[in-house]
Structure formats: structure tokens, C-alpha cells
Design brief:
The protein contains 10 helices and 17 strands. By secondary structure, the chain is α+β, with helices and mostly antiparallel strands. The protein folds into 3 domains: about 260 residues, PAS domain (Beta-Lactamase, 2-Layer Sandwich), CATH 3.30.450; about 90 residues; about 150 residues, Heat Shock Protein 90 (2-Layer Sandwich), CATH 3.30.565. Strands 1, 2, 3, 4, 5, 6 and 7 form a 7-stranded antiparallel sheet that branches. A 5-stranded mixed sheet has the order 12-14-15-17-16. A 3-stranded antiparallel sheet has the order 8-10-9, with helices on one face. A hairpin with a 2-residue loop joins strand 9 and strand 10. About 25% of the residues are buried.
């Protein structure tokens, strides 16, 4: 139930949330306004820098052209084309500049008398041609006015046949009171403005350049409708970015009697930096979530206490059940111990007695061959049952951890010989010869009972599946890092599928020996477990009709 006190808490929380919300809106608006102001100031700074760089480059160019003016007009004689070219070459070499420049001397009839670059004469084959063939009437009129004035005069940017946009800064040739024509030094516009583009800080800006008549020009061409001799395009041309003209900061500058329009703009429209915005709103929502979490935690506190009490009661009930199950488990363990006792004493001992009695009867002089055969079969069946019972008992005890692993230094050769003596009777029943080749007096750190169980089970298995009159080989080798025990028979053998399923508990099957002996595979499983306790492995090699070899490897620790 929500009381008025609880409601007042929520009202206070709501007021705080709204107050913080309005504060965030205020900060966001203020931040965006400041960002716009900073953006405008940066645009103005870059624009002024561009104007200064442009003016600086024009002044440098004018300094070179003034030197040419003095050389041509003040020399004792009018310099030849070669002398003029050498002078220009020295000029550029002295100031260590590599700009593209073409210098032409044109007479009063506007015919090219000579034209050169610092390294080539008449590169565009202009000598003898009239300017009117490449320039319009308006420019011819401007050139005529040039013939009446002293000083340097800037002309509109033009597309040169040399393949680049040039900016002409011309002067007339006036010697001995007579106008001989004019010199037109034209520099590659790219060299004027390139320093701006080379500054990585200005990658986000575009620059606009217009002639006095409003015609655009960039680092690759002049957009005045004349023929363009250059196939390259300036990727930074401002029209490539579709920028609104209102976004440009424009300045008109006059250089040597000619007015140029220069502009600067951002390539992209204004986009507020969302980082501050994201931080604000993230903080706000985090604050809201934190407040909700705290409030909900208070509401959940009682429910958690109730659940805790319920859980404690449930744990008490389960503890009672666990105690009861422990008592039942103790009783089951006692029953299990009694069961093993029955197997080990009440069942195993009578079977051993029967087996001993059958041995006595078999050794007695019984004339009836049928009865003799029955006794042999009974003796064998009883022996198989005792072996099965022993394996079953040992395996069950090993699974419950009740067989202790007690290793000590023992004579492994002696252990194997003792096991083979026990199995001699089983081998004699089938006239099987056990051939042993054992390295003598091998001392091995092992559990003697387990090792003998392994040997008995593997050799017994070899006898079981060997034909009468066959041979079972038992070989013990000592190698550098391990002991190798091989038990090889020449009996019926196994398929690869049978080999793969030998040590799988869920696939144990009863397989008869060559004389009808029973087999479950439990002895092999027990052998594998005991070998594993000694950190060893069992390898099986077999094929049908060619017998089987069990290879047991123990590491020498």
C-alpha cells in the first residue's frame, strides 16, 4: 500500500528529475551555441590565413617580375631571349624555387617574339603567333591599355597551352622613349595557393577563387569557357562539395590593379559534437535509473526477507531429509559390506571347496571316459566361476575405493613368475605352452596384488582364446624410460571393432573361449584400471585368425 509519505518521496524524486532535465537542456543549448561561435572563429582564422598566404605569394611573384622589368627596361640593350631566360633561371635558383613559370615577350602588334620557361625555349610553339588566336577581344583591349602604363599589372587567370592555369603579371617594354611591346610572366596558380592545401589542419575547408568577371579557377583550370589543355581535375574544387554560397566567408582583394574574389568555407555543414550531448544524457538516464533502483531496492527488502525466511525453513527441511538419507546410506553401506562378505566368504569358499574336490576326483583313477570328461568340464566351469567371482569382487571394491593402492619396491620378474605358476594348470588343460622371456630381477615400484591380478587376467585371457596345443608368450623388456610387458597368443584373434570395444563398460559381452570357457571382459577392465593406477597404458594388437598381443607399458619413475 502506497501511503502519503511514500507519495511525497516520489514527488520529490520527480521534481529533482525535472530540474536536472531542464538543466541538461540549458547546458546542451549553451554548448551548441559556443560550438557554433568557435566554428565561425576558426573559419575566419583560416580565411585570414589563406588571404595572407595568397598575398604573400603574389608579393613574392611580383618581386620576381619587378626584377625582370628592371632587367628588360634598364639594360643597355634589349636582352635576347637566351639572356632573358638565363636571368630568370638565375632568379629562381637564387631563391631556391621550383615554380612553373612561362615568360613571353610580345610586340605592340600582339605577336609573340619569344617565349620560354627556365629550362626550355618556346615550349608551346608560340613564336610568331598572334595573341588574338588564343585570347578574346576583351583581353586584347586590356593588353592595349597595358602598353600605355608603367608598372606591373595583374591579369585574369588563364588556361595555358602549357597545360596549367596561369596568373599573368605583365609589364610593358619601354626603351628610349618607345614602347616595344610587353612581357607576360605567367606563374602556375597552383604554386601560389598550394601551401594552404599542404597544411593538414585545413583539410576540412574548401577555398574559392574567382576572376574579376566572376569566373572560377582552381589549381588545374580556369572555368571561363576557353579551351582547357589540362586533363587533370582539382578534387578540392569547391563545387565538388555542393556547398551553399551563404556558408562562404568572402573577401575581395585587389592586386596590381586587378580584383580577385577569395572565399573559404567548411566542406561539411555544421554538425554538433555529440560527445558532450551523449555524456549529459547518459548521466541523466544513469541518475534516473539509480534513483529507481534505490527506490525499488527498498520495496524489495521486505520481500527478500520473507523469501530468506522461507528459504531457511526449506533448508531446515532439506537438512532433515539429508540426515535421514545419510542414515539410509550408512545402512546401505553396511548391506553392501555384508553382500561383499557373502560373496567373499559364503559363496567363494564353497566354490573353492568344490573346485578342490573336483581336482581330487580328476586325479583319481576313474575308468569311465564320459565321467572323466564330465569331471574335467565341471572343474573348468567351477574355475571360470571362481575367476569371474574374484574379478567381480575386485572390480566392485576398486570402484568403491575400498582396494587400497599400496606400492612398494618389488621384484617384478618374480611377481610375473608366481602368476604364471598359478596359471600353469589352466594351460595344461588345453596343452598350451607358456613361453616366458623375462628380464631378470627387475625392481619396480608397484602394488604386488594389482600387478599379479593384471598378469593373471591377461595371460588367462590369452589361454582362453588359444587353440589346444598352442603357445602363449610372456615377454618383459626394460627400455630407457619404461617397462614393457607383452602377452601374445596365436589364437582366434579379434576384429578391429572388437578391439575398440574391449575396455568399454557399457559394451561388455560374454564371449566363449576356444574350449567353451566363459568370458565377460570384466577381467580386462580390471586390468586396465590397475595398470592406470601405476600410470601405465594397455595397447591391444589383434586380427582375426592371427592371435592377439596385449602390450602393457609402465613408466620408469
Amino acid at each position: 500500500m502506497i501511503t502519503s509519505k511514500n507519495r511525497s518521496h516520489w514527488v520529490k524524486f520527480g521534481v529533482i528529475i525535472l530540474g536536472v532535465l531542464f538543466f541538461i537542456f540549458f547546458l546542451d543549448t549553451k554548448f551548441k551555441e559556443n560550438e557554433k561561435i568557435a566554428r565561425a572563429e576558426r573559419l575566419e582564422s583560416v580565411h585570414n590565413h589563406m588571404l595572407n598566404q595568397f598575398s604573400f605569394s603574389i608579393d613574392n611573384f611580383a618581386g620576381l617580375v619587378s626584377g625582370m622589368n628592371s632587367f628588360v627596361n634598364l639594360s643597355k640593350e634589349l636582352p635576347s631571349a637566351e639572356e632573358f631566360q638565363e636571368f630568370v633561371r638565375i632568379q629562381f635558383r637564387d631563391i631556391n624555387r621550383q615554380d612553373s613559370i612561362v615568360v613571353s615577350f610580345i610586340d605592340t602588334a600582339h605577336v609573340f617574339k619569344f617565349s620560354f620557361t627556365p629550362n626550355q625555349m618556346d615550349p608551346a610553339n608560340l613564336i610568331g603567333k598572334k595573341v588574338a588566336s588564343i585570347r578574346d577581344d576583351k583581353e586584347i583591349k586590356n593588353l592595349n591599355r597595358l602598353l600605355t602604363k608603367d608598372g606591373l599589372h595583374l591579369f585574369p587567370a588563364i588556361n595555358l597551352v602549357e597545360g596549367w592555369p596561369g596568373l599573368p603579371l605583365n609589364f610593358r617594354v619601354y626603351r628610349d622613349g618607345k614602347v616595344l611591346g610587353y612581357v607576360a610572366p605567367i606563374i602556375d596558380f597552383k604554386s601560389i595557393i598550394q601551401p594552404i592545401y599542404d597544411d593538414i589542419e585545413y583539410d576540412e575547408f574548401v577555398f574559392l577563387f574567382k576572376n574579376e568577371d566572376g569566373q572560377d579557377f582552381d589549381r588545374q583550370q580556369v572555368y571561363d569557357g576557353t579551351k582547357v589543355y589540362n586533363t587533370s581535375k582539382d578534387t578540392e574544387y569547391y563545387k565538388n562539395f555542393h556547398i551553399n554560397s551563404n556558408n562562404f566567408l568572402i573577401s575581395k582583394k585587389t592586386y596590381f590593379g586587378y580584383s580577385l574574389t577569395l572565399g573559404t568555407a567548411y566542406k561539411d555543414d555544421f554538425k554538433p559534437d555529440n560527445k558532450f550531448y551523449i555524456i549529459l544524457w547518459t548521466s541523466y538516464f544513469a541518475f534516473v535509473i539509480l534513483g529507481l533502483v534505490i527506490t525499488l531496492q527498498v520495496d524489495r527488502y521486505k520481500r527478500l526477507n520473507d523469501k530468506l525466511a522461507f528459504t531457511n525453513n526449506l533448508l531446515e527441511e532439506r537438512q532433515i531429509k539429508i540426515n535421514q538419507q545419510n542414515k539410509e546410506l550408512i545402512q546401505l553401506n553396511k548391506t553392501k559390506d555384508k553382500f561383499f562378505s557373502i560373496i567373499g566368504h559364503d559363496i567363494k569358499q564353497p566354490l573353492n571347496a568344490i573346485e578342490g574336490l573336483l581336482h581330487l576326483l580328476e586325479d583319481s583313477e576313474i575308468q569311465d571316459p564320459d565321467l572323466k570328461e564330465i569331471l574335467v568340464n565341471l572343474n573348468q566351469a567351477t574355475g571360470n566361476t571362481v575367476d569371474l567371482l574374484n574379478n567381480l569382487l575386485r572390480w566392485a571394491l576398486s570402484q568403491t575405493g575400498e582396494i587400497n593402492f599400496n606400492p612398494t619396491n618389488l621384484n617384478l620378474t618374480q611377481l610375473i613368475n608366481e602368476s604364471l605358476r598359478i596359471l600353469k594348470f589352466q594351460a595344461d588343460l588345453k596343452q598350451i605352452i607358456i613361453k616366458d622371456s623375462l628380464v631378470e630381477n627387475i625392481i619396480f615400484y608397484c602394488d604386488g596384488d594389482m600387478i599379479q591380478t593384471v598378469v593373471r587376467n591377461l595371460v588367462s585371457n590369452a589361454i582362453k582364446y588359444s587353440n589346444e596345443g598352442g603357445i602363449v608368450e610372456v615377454i618383459l623388456l626394460k627400455e630407457k624410460t619404461e617397462l614393457v610387458l607383452k602377452i601374445k597368443d596365436y589364437g582366434v584373434g579379434m576384429s578391429q571393432k572388437q578391439v575398440d570395444s574391449l575396455f568399454k563398460l557399457d559394451n561388455l559381452t560374454s564371449t566363449l573361449g576356444t574350449k567353451g570357457e566363459m568370458g565377460t571382459g570384466l577381467g580386462l577392465q580390471l586390468a586396465k584400471d590397475f595398470v592406470k593406477k601405476h600410470q601405465g597404458i594397455i595397447i591391444v594388437e589383434s586380427s582375426i585368425g592371427n592371435g592377439t598381443t596385449f602390450i602393457v607399458k609402465f613408466p620408469l619413475l
